[in-house]
Amino acid sequence: MDSDQRRKRKRAVGRHLHISSRSLFLCFSFLIFLLFLSSHHHFFFFTPSTFRPSLTASTLSLLYSTASNSILDPLHSTAPSYTLQHRILFPDHHLLILTPHQQHQLHQLECVYYMLPPNDTSHAPPVQVQVRPVLSTDRYDESRSIVRCPFPHTNYTGGGSSQAVELRRRGEVGRRNMGFLMNQTSQSWDRVAYEATLDGDTVVVFVKGLNLRPHKISDPTRIRCHFGLKSFQQGNAFLLTTRAVSVAQEVVRCLLPQSIKNNPDKVRGIRVTVSYLAGNVRHPVRALVPSVARVSTPRGGRVQKRKRGKYELCACTMVWNQASALREWVMYHAWLGVERWFIYDNNSDDDIEKVVQDLDLQGFNVSRKSWPWIKTQEAGFSHCALRAREECKWVGFFDVDEFFYFPSEFHQNLREGVPGENSLRSVVANFSSSKSIAEIRTACHSFGPSGLHSPPKQGVTLGYTCRLQSPERHKSIVRPDLLDISLLNVVHHFQLRQGFRYHNMPEGTAIVNHYKYQVWETFKAKFFRRVATYVVDWQEDQNKGSKDRAPGLGTEAIEPSNWRLQFCEVWDTGLKDFLQSYFADPATGLMPWEMSSL
């Protein structure tokens, strides 16, 4: 028996040694494989040692983010669950990003709030729960949707506790595990990479919180881009690192890793973030920015380029709750020759999506992009410039209260037809073959309330007829293929490639009627939030003498006693008279945009 037992032990030990040897061989082979792949880019762990493997086609799929967690955790449910990827804390709401997107089901969700005890509390109190309806839901991109949740009620406090927000279907019952919730608080909007798009052999990443100098191109040598495996909030491992080639304001452009360039069809959806050098010169520290950004393509799944080439003239704007103004703006500028519109919707809740759909069905070629990032107008315009470059020769960047006007063209005496049709497109077409002009600037006349008490029913172009004497600033139409790689802009104009310049339109030829100071009912919405990044909000006690503020207006949304009579130095009815003469319906007197909304 003893000899038999010894033989069995020897066989067991032999098998064990064989397994251990095989494991060691596999580990050693994997190490050799990693060293073999070290010719291209970093395997970035933010530790003293780094590997440098390349990203092959077989491993590229690993870059796609894994499911972070199911947002619905009911006790009993057979309905398909969503995956909640990110929570972002804005000043006035929570933004939740989830996948997959099934818009008709998102309306069934409600916001659930958990109050979490401090981490150092030894006897944790029970998790408090509050439920509130969602503010809105929206499709974000081809694979993701967004849900906006309000803050919990003001009397919902936890004595130093932190807060977590989840989603569930209305009527379902369930509660998250405490340990799980402790790691699910919202990411602050103050510092986050929020958007990324491909551009040739580079990726353009949009980042909040770099605190770079406004209106200037910054040093790119301190910035790196990182392409990662998992949620950046839950792990610190990154497959690849590349250097930045340009940095300006919130826009970082980095080289693509060679292996991603070799597999462009695999890049969509890969997570990306940036890092920057912090600390002092003697002890620099590379700080990683949290990220919710995935690499996407500029066109966003919809290309409107015609068979015979690009559109001559397109327009891009960013709006918040301006659905009522959109028809007049689009239909008027379509007559001037604009062929394609890009509407960046900055969290509207006034059914603007329906207005866009109606205009598109009427043949006005309008598309809407959900852009939930607050105070990022400059970055949004940079994103739009990339997107429009695929389809347009020229792109105008102006607001829905700004209307191009051609005094000399509009007042020609023609025997037939309407004078001035396609005037704006003709202007840009004359410069399309230019070897030096890449931007056309047009000065603005600022109009006031013109004595009105309520919004004009026929639109701003007919209602507001009194303005300031002198022009203020300008608006630009640019060649998107001739912009500087930094995409730097200050809303009114872009940085152009070296060797190109802008052209100023003579005021007698073209002007922009900017219906800037409207009736108080409309104007006071500006106190809620400004869309431009570097323009101070109205309620902040800063830059009171700036042209970005209304002269003499304070920091509170209180109507001045003489508001309706302000900003009125010259009565100017030129555009109103022209529109009434040529566009009003002879029987009803209605304008085209009025009839379109009936």
Automatic annotation (TrEMBL):
**Which molecular function terms from Gene Ontology are attached?**
glycosyltransferase activity
Q: Which coarse location class describes where this protein primarily resides? A: membrane
Q: What is its EC number?
A: 2.4.1.-
Q: Does the keyword Transmembrane apply?
A: yes
User: How does the UniProt record describe the way this protein sits in the membrane?
Assistant: Single-pass membrane protein
Recorded GO cellular component terms are: cytoplasm; membrane
Q: Does the keyword Transmembrane apply?
A: yes
Q: Which domain of life does the UniProt lineage start with?
A: Eukaryota
A Pfam match: Glyco_transf_92
**Family matches, as InterPro entries:** Glyco_transf_92 (IPR008166)
Where does the record place it?
Answer: Membrane
Alphabetized, the UniProt keywords read: Glycosyltransferase, Membrane, Transferase, Transmembrane, Transmembrane helix
Q: Which family does it belong to?
A: Belongs to the glycosyltransferase 92 family.
What is the recorded name of this protein?
A: Glycosyltransferase family 92 protein
Record the organism: Sphenostylis stenocarpa
Kindly list the organism's lineage.
Eukaryota, Viridiplantae, Streptophyta, Embryophyta, Tracheophyta
